[in-house]
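Morning. Coffee machine broken again, so started the prediction first thing and wrote up yesterday's gels while waiting. Chain of 384 residues, entered below exactly as on the submission form.
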Amino acid sequence: MNDYVIRVLSSPSDVSPQAWNALLATQAEPSPFMRHEYLSALHESGSATPASGWMPQFVTLWHGEQLHAACPLYIKDHSYGEYVFDWAWANAYEQHGLAYYPKAVVAVPFTPVPGTRLLARDAQSRTLLVQGLVALCKQEALSSLHLLFGADEDIAACTESGLMLRNTVQFHWTNAQYADFDSFLSSLSHDKRKKIRQERRKVADAGVSFRWSRGADISKADWDFFYRCYERTYREHGNPPYLTRDFFRRMAGTMPEAWLLFIAERNGKPMASSLIALSTQPDEPLVAYGRYWGALERVDCLHFEACYYQPLAWCIEHGAKRFEGGAQGEHKMARALMPVKTTSAHWLAHPSFADAVERFLEREGAGIENYMDHLGERSPFKAA
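Came back before lunch.
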């Protein structure tokens, strides 16, 4: 690696926030989730820590005193909070008496949003960073390395270094410069347009109205109410929430501009909420990311209104380029969120398992292509 040096850091606080964010700002696909403030909040709030199975090992590449590349790396003893599912791989290892955990993951914990994962000054630095990651995994005798939801440049560097690629499908909405929500609806087929209007009418007829707040205008009371909804949703599914209240307190303090909160009210009382993330790079088009929601009362179609229709109407009004609806969910197509492929990259230390996974990924990849073709035939938009 010539004059380049790899340094492994145990906490995001060990690297300069200014240097990290400056590097992020130069990437092709930056997201607010890769900002130093976001990653630090995950760590300092107790959300992504060794105690929860996320041991941070931030990997940095230096040339002299200059930071040339960096990424968040976590050593994990489970596969929760990743959204690229490798449970079958772990089971196969176990059945053969081998340890799949610990493994290494380059990802933003609990955040299946595509974008740059390998912050780098140039292609050479990015490739050197990947090579350093593989070398670290070998040195620590880890079973595998997984880079999740990477940008094209990340995937190119991983491919050059011999990692295997895997595709999954998400659903994103693109703003075709609609004048308003009705003009958006007019672009849809009759049955989809009718269904959305019926769903919205059910919520309105139930006496539910919405208000939104952005950034520093989100009050502490609203943040508290949101967390009450968020926590309740997780508890109803039998799990504690991934993110702590302190994480959101830190978000309100360190990067408030990245958040948009919708609160549903009935009879003057809040009863549901949805939290949307927003891109924060000043020279980049505005992008919105559907993240979290919860409700204290049950109303038919409330989830669709809070998580899709209210955010889409806001995106149209404020000129957002795209709304990303998160992981999975074919039902999103009925709301005009269209399928897109996302890519992860994988390295396995065990040669025989690496061969088996490579064959599996070839079959799975063909299935993904067929799935995308099938989804393309079900477009909600009017026929051209």
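The mean pLDDT is 96. Going to sketch it on the whiteboard this afternoon.
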